[in-house]
Design brief:
Layout lengths: L2 H19 L5 H27 L11
């Protein structure tokens, strides 16, 4: 990924996060939304990480 592509993706993420926070009316709601965003990012990152280390033949039923 080039630097330009990275910056474009990060800008998209910033704009999306800003739009989400527009729905918050209180500081508590901002915090809850932040936690939800972090949870989603961690979930997607875990999937991406597992895909990078997945064996060529795929995972067996025991998760190896």
């Amino acid at each position: 990924m080039s630097g330009t592509e990275y910056e474009e993706l990060m800008d998209t993420i910033r704009r999306a996060a800003a739009r989400i926070f527009e729905y918050a009316e209180t500081e508590e709601e901002v915090c809850r939304l932040e936690q939800a965003i972090n949870h989603e990012i961690m979930y997607v990152a875990a999937i991406a990480q597992s895909e990078r280390v997945k064996p060529p033949s795929g995972w067996d039923p025991l998760g190896r």
